[in-house]
Amino acid sequence: MKKIEAIIKPFKLDDVREALSEVGIAGMTVTEVKGFGRQKGHTELYRGAEYMVDFLPKVKLEIVVADDQVEDCIDAIMETAQTGKIGDGKIFVSTIERVIRIRTGEENEDAV
């Protein structure tokens, strides 16, 4: 099993969720986060004063999938979250050792 973490622009969340649903992803965790990469933030104007916004609002998706679903999941995120502009985000894939459903005690892929 793999854990896919995707950091995307907030306005792309609904499109990405829909695309993931179409490829069979039943559940995910979504967190509102702030951060920056190469983008390094941007400047904004407020009441005539310019100020620096260092951390930009993003959305972090966490999805645990079977190994055979990883590429479909990544493709769905890439196709829907990509705007072609700086700050589109990142996708991280890591290995999951074990999953346990608290309610039933089911483990691994049965628990996902």
Describe the structure.
The chain is of the alpha+beta class and 112 residues long. It has helices spanning 13-22, 70-81; strands at 2-8, 29-35, 42-46, 49-53, 56-65, 90-95. The chain has a single domain, classed as Alpha-Beta Plaits, CATH 3.30.70. Helix content is 20%, strand content 36%. The strands form two sheets. It has a four-stranded antiparallel sheet, covered by helices on one side. Strands 3-4 form a two-stranded antiparallel sheet. It holds the Pfam family P-II. GO terms for molecular function: ATP binding; enzyme regulator activity.
The span between the termini is 9 Å
In DSSP terms, counting alpha (H) and pi (I) runs of 4 or more, how many helices? 2
Structure class: alpha+beta
Corresponding CATH architecture = 2-Layer Sandwich
| Major β-sheet profile | 4 strands, antiparallel
In short:
The chain has helices at residues 13-22, 70-81; strands spanning 2-8, 29-35, 42-46, 49-53, 56-65, 90-95.
Detail the topology: elements first, then pairings.
Elements: E1 2-8, H1 13-22, E2 29-35, E3 42-46, E4 49-53, E5 56-65, H2 70-81, E6 90-95
Antiparallel strand pairs: 1-5, 1-6, 2-5, 3-4
List keywords for this structure.
alpha+beta, phosphoprotein, two-stranded antiparallel sheet, Alpha-Beta Plaits, 4-stranded antiparallel β-sheet, 20% helix, 112 residues, N-reg_PII, ATP binding
